[in-house]
Every structure is written in C-alpha cells, then in structure tokens.
Amino acid sequence: MRAAILSVCGALSAASAFADPLEGKKSGAEILAESAPEDWREIPAEEMLVIELARGRVYVALSPALAPKHVAQVKKLAREGFYDGLSFYRVIDGFVAQGGDPFGEKKTKTSKKILKAEFEGPLAKGYSFNALKDVDGYAPAAGFVASLPTGFDEGSRTAWHLHCAGAFAFGREDGRDTASTEFYVALQPQRYLDRNMSVFGRVIAGMQHLQALRRVEPPQEKTDDIGETIVSIRVAADIPPSERETFEILDSARPVFADYAEARRNRPEAFFHFRPDYLDVCQLPVPVRATSKMDKPVN
After folding, report:
1. Interacting residues of 175 by C-beta distance below 8 A, sequence separation 6+
2. Is the residue at 150 inside a domain?
3. pTM attached to this predicted model
4. What is the CATH number of the domain that holds 59?
5. Considering the domain boundaries, does residue 78 fall inside one?
6. Is the pLDDT of residue 261 over 50?
7. How many whole angstroms separate alpha carbon 106 and alpha carbon 211?
8. Quick one: the chain helix, strand, coil %, rounded to 5?
C-alpha cells in the first residue's frame, strides 16, 4: 500500500513538473478581442502621411510628442508637393529605404533649408512614457510614447523614438544639424542609430510595399537607376475622407497595452514550449486597425 501511495505521489509530482504555469492565461489575440473602444486611439489625419507608390499606399503616423520641428518640416514639404515625382533612390536590403531628391536639385518653398537636430528631448505636454520592465541594451529604459517605440533617460528626463522596423526619420550629413528633405524608413531594426538621427514617425500600414521596393544604391550619375517613383506624399488631412483610410492604434497609456505586452513576453499559446520571460521593444507589434472604408480602396 505504501509503495502504491509513493507511486501515485511520484506520478503527481511528475505531472506538476510538466504543468503549464501559463495555462488559462489570455493570449495577445484574446486580449485585443476583449479590448474596449477607449483602449484605442484614433490617429489624427493631421498627424499622418500618405506615401503614394505605383504598388500601393504607405501610411506613416507622425509623432508631435518628439522632434516636432521635423514633423512640421515634412508636413510643409508634403504640402509643397516637394516629393511628388521623386524616388526611393537608396534601398539597401535589411537596412533602409531612403527617398527624396538624390541630386539635391529641387528647390523648397516654405520649408527650412536645414534643421536643428532633435535626436532626443523632453516629452511634449500631455504625453507620457510607458516603460517595459525589460532591460534594453541601447537605452536606460525602453517602452512607448503614444504607442511608438521609445527610449527614456530618467536622469535627463529626455526621450527619443527608436529605430525599430518602420521607423521614419530624416537623413543627414556628418554634422548634427544638416537634415533637410531626405527621409528614410528602417526596413529592419537599426538600434545603433538611436540618438544619432531624428526619428519622428513610424509606418503603420503598407510596410510590405516598402519591403518590395527595387534594391538600388544611391545614383552617382543622371543615367544611373534612381529607384521607384514616389507618386506623391500628402498629409492625410489634405485628402478627402472618402479617398483615404483612417486608423486606430492600441493606446500605450491604457492598462490593456501592458496586458498585451505581458502576453507577448511569455506567450501562453500551446505552440510555445520555451518562454524567455523577456520582451524586445522592437519585437512587440503594436496593433493598428483601419476604421474606415474608402470609396475606392487602395492596396
């Protein structure tokens, strides 16, 4: 009898050793499905760029919380029609897709000729930094501001957006204050560029079109390949509502965002057998959903 009891106890111990500690926990998909309307924030049309390519549209959420002068600059350039007919002339596999005027010949009208660097700075009023608990190799703390990946230094009280995939920034020369018109989108995380460039937005839809761009090196001569044409870049607010999408993004200031992040840190789905108890800020896909139906949907 005693041997039988020990045998049963041993079986129970073995079973408990293999019990899933996350059993019953909600997955990220389930958390999103149960989210409330107030957990989502509409991206204002005045804070969104629409890049029109022959292959489809790319939507970029701009961030007035950081690098506000760069936000103002790109909106002026868009409203001047500066980028219309230019190209993505530098597309490096696994690095960036850079667009603008490869030979610097097009004149600006209302925008500045050069910009003072906004690599990092204080948060604009009304914005908060929502930290992840994980250690980050590039920043004292990593998390989100207005649902965009962000680094933060408590000592200086400064923040900066991160070079995760989809980061939207201006290129520059060696000097800090030499950005002007040329922009790029990170095709993969490039964290070593953090606080060396001014990131002021992120692609929220249409990233597949940028990933599919023809790979080209910067042209040296007018006869060189200058890449695929930018049909236009416009501020979404300047496009009739019936001709553009509107979007909502999961609000990083809401408790549900923290729950969603936790579900991604240790995935409770049965598929996952190894859970690292760690979350890389660039590997947290921030949920975005379209909330409108255009008269003529664009890919």
Report:
1. none
2. yes
3. 0.90
4. 2.40.100.10
5. yes
6. yes
7. 26
8. 25, 25, 50
